[in-house]
């Protein structure tokens, strides 16, 4: 079993299984949803088993590598592998997508097509985190957009076509920058190669490296999203259904963060040394701007969407910190927000199913009628505002301490960034607790109570939230549960980034591991 192609199987199994959905004898969608959930569970079990048996926590480079020639004339290979950056996100993808299919239980409109798109996304999203060929990365990045567009445009709200069109224009437009940069990197030098390790080993002129970095930054700024390329996200969230919300917040945003770490920082460290202050400033802008904008939102979905944008700003600050702790916090923030964002948006969908409104002005006092929903809203909101004991607190604290102790910036800049980011942290509980008060507390909206059946949470919904809260609280009390998966990789990457700034000394973690071991890691060869 050591030579079994686990990653290829994990990627292709849900896609192949989705092709059988059109021929299943099912009119009401009951068989289809059980079939899709079973496929999702099997694939998630395969992910966990492959991680448990084939992944070495102490190895910083690529593991479980599989490489097959696909189109030799174009040097296009099916090349997949995982390391500390991608393995946690592969597990997160399997976990969130499986729960999203359970959350899609009430879907009755075209269930075969709906679950076909969900399973196709399952494999496509894992492929984004696993592929190690730049051209293949571009292909799976693009193919993953089609299911999202259809899920928005068919099952969305009243403005679904506008939101879906805006999503595809923004993301497809940004993807063009990936293709141009990938081709430039592949054809640079004497050897033409799309292999990520070979591309990372090339010695680019600093001007070209800056252009490549800027191209990637634009593409991934759309997906993360980063101000001012963020406006598609509130519109998409405003029209999406609960399971699509979970995929958008739990996985799609993490694709942008992952690509920034993998390609911008990992492949172009010299350009990153110049762009890092820009990333930090953009991170602060994300935190403050999105938090303030969230205050003004009366639509529940858009309020939480802007909250997601604000939380992703910490990823940028950690990525620009040049410290092991800061980068580790950035990765943990992606994982933490994937869990918390999915839980909040699922609750939004469950609440809308009962109240048939998203406007906070039309809610009020529903906590008296739906006590279980009230308890879940309260717990998930506390997780989002980074309450100690929750995963968000640990991730944001690591980013703060990592940046504050960085020797790459002068003290005035660090104090200013930490102060502004702290203001964002203070704003977060204000608008989240205000939102919670308007939904669950206060006087009842008599018209809402009289005309809507405010039925409390059913076991399926409680189970989904419980599944999300277990890792949120588990990480909050024992962060090593996750950080040990990627520590070796982030230490190696931080060493490369610090090496690109001559004034910085090697980090203490590198000194403990040994500089030679770090430099010899196969994924990010030292130039």
From TrEMBL:
InterPro entries: NADH_Q_OxRdtase_chain4 (IPR022997), NADH_Q_OxRdtase_chainM/4 (IPR010227), NADH_UbQ_OxRdtase (IPR003918), ND/Mrp_TM (IPR001750). It comes from the Bacteria. It catalyses: a plastoquinone + NADPH + (n+1) H(+)(in) = a plastoquinol + NADP(+) + n H(+)(out); a plastoquinone + NADH + (n+1) H(+)(in) = a plastoquinol + NAD(+) + n H(+)(out). Keywords: Membrane, NAD, NADP, Plastoquinone, Quinone, Thylakoid, Translocase, Transmembrane, Transmembrane helix. The keyword Transmembrane helix applies. It is found in: Cellular thylakoid membrane; Endomembrane system; Membrane. It is an enzyme of class 7 (translocase). NDH-1 shuttles electrons from NAD(P)H, via FMN and iron-sulfur (Fe-S) centers, to quinones in the respiratory chain. The immediate electron acceptor for the enzyme in this species is believed to be plastoquinone. Couples the redox reaction to proton translocation (for every two electrons transferred, four hydrogen ions are translocated across the cytoplasmic membrane), and thus conserves the redox energy in a proton gradient. This is NAD(P)H-quinone oxidoreductase chain 4. It comes from Geitlerinema calcuttense NRMC-F 0142.
């Amino acid at each position: 079993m050591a030579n079994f192609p686990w990653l290829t199987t994990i990627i292709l199994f849900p896609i192949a299984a989705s092709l059988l959905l059109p021929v299943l004898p099912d009119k009401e969608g009951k068989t289809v949803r059980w079939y899709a959930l079973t496929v999702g569970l099997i694939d998630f079990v395969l992910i966990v088993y492959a991680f448990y048996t084939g992944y070495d926590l102490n190895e910083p480079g690529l593991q479980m590598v599989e490489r097959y020639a696909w189109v030799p004339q174009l040097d296009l290979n099916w090349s997949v592998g995982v390391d500390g950056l991608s393995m946690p996100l592969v597990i997160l993808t399997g976990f969130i997508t499986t729960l999203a299919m359970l959350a899609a239980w009430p879907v009755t409109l075209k269930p075969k097509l709906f679950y076909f798109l969900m399973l196709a996304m399952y494999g496509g999203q894992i492929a984004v985190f696993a592929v190690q060929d730049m051209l293949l990365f571009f292909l799976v990045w693009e193919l993953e957009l089609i299911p999202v567009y259809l899920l928005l445009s068919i099952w969305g709200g009243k403005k679904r076509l506008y939101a879906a069109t805006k999503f595809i224009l923004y993301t497809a437009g940004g993807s063009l920058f990936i293709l141009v940069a990938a081709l430039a990197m592949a054809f640079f030098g004497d050897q033409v190669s799309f292999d990520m390790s070979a591309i990372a080993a090339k010695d680019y002129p600093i001007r070209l490296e800056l252009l490549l970095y800027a191209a990637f930054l634009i593409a991934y700024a759309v997906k993360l999203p980063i101000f001012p390329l963020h406006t598609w996200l509130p519109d998409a969230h405003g029209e999406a259904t609960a399971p699509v919300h979970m995929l958008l917040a739990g996985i799609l945003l993490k694709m942008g963060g992952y690509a920034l770490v993998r390609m911008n920082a990992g492949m172009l460290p010299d350009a990153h040394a110049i762009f890092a202050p820009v990333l930090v400033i953009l991170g602060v802008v994300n935190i403050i701007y999105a938090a303030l904008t969230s205050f003004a939102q009366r639509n529940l979905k858009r309020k939480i969407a802007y909250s997601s944008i604000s939380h992703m700003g910490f990823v940028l600050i950690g990525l620009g910190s040049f410290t092991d702790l800061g980068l580790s916090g950035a990765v943990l923030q992606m994982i933490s927000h994937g869990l918390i964002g999915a839980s909040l948006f699922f609750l939004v969908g469950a609440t809308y199913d009962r109240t048939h409104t998203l406007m906070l002005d039309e809610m009020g006092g529903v906590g008296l009628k739906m006590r279980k929903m009230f308890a879940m809203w309260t717990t998930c909101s506390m997780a989002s505002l980074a309450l100690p004991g929750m995963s968000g607190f640990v991730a944001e604290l690591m980013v703060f301490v990592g940046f504050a102790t960085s020797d790459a910036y002068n003290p005035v800049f660090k104090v200013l960034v930490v102060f502004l980011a702290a203001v964002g942290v203070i704003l977060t509980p204000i608008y989240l607790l205000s939102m919670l008060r308007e939904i669950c507390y206060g006087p009842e909206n008599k018209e809402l109570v009289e005309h809507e059946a405010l039925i409390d949470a059913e076991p399926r919904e409680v189970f989904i939230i419980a599944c999300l809260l277990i890792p949120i609280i588990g990480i909050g009390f024992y962060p090593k549960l996750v950080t040990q998966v990627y520590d070796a990789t982030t230490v190696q990457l931080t060493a490369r980034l610090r090496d690109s700034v001559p004034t910085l000394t090697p980090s203490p973690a590198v000194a403990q591991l040994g500089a030679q071991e770090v430099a010899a890691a196969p994924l990010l060869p030292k130039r």
